[in-house]
Amino acid sequence: MSVEFFLIITPGLESIAREELLEKWPKLSKVYAGLFQATPSLKVEKGGLTLHCAEAEGWLLNAYLKIPSRILQRFESFRASDVPKLYEKTRRLEWTRFFREDEIKVESSTHASRLSMKDQIEDVILSALRDAREHQPFRKSLLKVPQTIFARIVDDHVQLSIDTSGEPLYQRGYKTKTVEAPLRETLASAFVYASLKSIGESSYILDPMCGSGTFLTEFIGFNIATRTRTFAFQNFPCFAKILPTYKLYDLKSTQLKVYGFDQDEDSLEATRENLAILKKKINFEIEIQKQDLFAATKSDIQDTLILVNPPFGKRIEISGGVSKYYQSVIDTLIDVYQPKAIGILCPSEVRGLVTRGHYEWVKNSSVPISTTTGGLEVKFELLRKV
Question: No. of H helices and E strands in the chain?
């Protein structure tokens, strides 16, 4: 039976997230007998993807997709224009398929509805759940994962959804150290994937301002199932019935190497620790060095993919004009590494970046990408050798 899911995506990443899902879907069909066989019904919306597929398929995507930040399962929809209707219709639903006796949280949004107070909506739903337990006892605790209902009310139409992810999906479970102005993993994965789609496969990358190593970990883990954390669907009482054999597979096995450079020792230590945790699950090569990019001489590392997230002027003070600074980063990378391509994340106000030598800016369905990080408008651009 087909079930509707909504994959929450950072605005600006919807198209590349769709590409990821469509590429990985047939690969999943080869490792899960009877699942992922039919082409998924998929609709791109602002801030997410609506997907119709089997229940087990939607749950498993949590472990394989790297760009969504959360996967919701649509549970029930109905009209309710006042508190009594919302309470009664919520109370009658069969909650025991998804929830145990642990704490349940509600997150709500409302627009153009008579039910307009978020706190009141959330209190009513929780009250209905408490009363529902008297007639449908919930099973005992099993896993320590968040249990969350998402309620969206538009024009008095209520949509209730069940969170299948638990903690946000950018929390991979292997990153214990961060530094100032970190890049969220879901964004880093989108930029990694967009780069590889544009230039072809690469078995190694370099980040000359690696921070805590997010580009490196997401490059390594993009085709590897997430085994370092637990998902909310694993706590569902119906989980064992829907997925009696729960096993995760890697979609590609390639020997990879990552280079992480930075001038800050704390950043390098964070990168080492994060990569060490990941290396317990995946075999890859690592080279970490302390290096100031602007003091670097011509490197033996040539013709590689470079991904870089230089300091943002609004978060970290940088001298000179912002556009001039980013141009100097590009020029130095070309002089030092003669790379195959450079993927660079910069503030949206950066203008007038020019190419050097045999390089061109890539413009296709994957790049450039305009999005936000930490409340700042940014863009990811890709420069390729021709």
Answer: 9, 15
Q: E strands along the chain, which residues?
A: 2-8, 41-45, 48-54, 70-79, 105-111, 148-154, 157-163, 204-207, 256-262, 284-290, 305-308, 341-347, 359-361, 369-373, 376-385
Number of domains in the chain: 2
**218 in the same domain as 152:** no
Verify that 87 and 210 share a domain, yes or no: no
Report the predicted TM-score, pTM, of the whole model to 2 decimal places: 0.96
Q: Is residue 177 part of a domain?
A: no
Whether residue 26 is found in the same domain as residue 101: yes
> Chain-wide mean pLDDT for the chain?
94
| CATH number, domain containing residue 105 | 3.30.2130.30
User: Does residue 4 sit in helix, strand or coil?
Assistant: strand
Region 102-130: mean pLDDT is 97
Report the residue count for the chain. Answer: 386
- At residue 304, what are phi and psi to the nearest 5 degrees? -105, 170
Could you list the beta-strand ranges (E) of 164-295. Answer: 204-207, 256-262, 284-290
Distances (CA, A) of 309 to 38, 73, 174: 38, 34, 20
Tell me, rounded to whole angstroms, the distance of Cα 301 from its chain centroid: 30
Domain assignment of residue 67, given as a range: 2-163
Interstrand relation of 48-54 and 41-45 (parallel, antiparallel or unpaired): antiparallel
Give the pLDDT band of residue 313 (cuts 50, 70, 90): low
Answer yes or no: do 136 and 275 share one domain: no
- pLDDT over threshold 80, residue 163: yes
3-state SS class at 116: coil
Same domain, 138 and 243: no
Token pair recorded at residue 365: 């369905």
Distance CA 31, CA 231 (A): 20
Average pLDDT over residues 242-250: 95
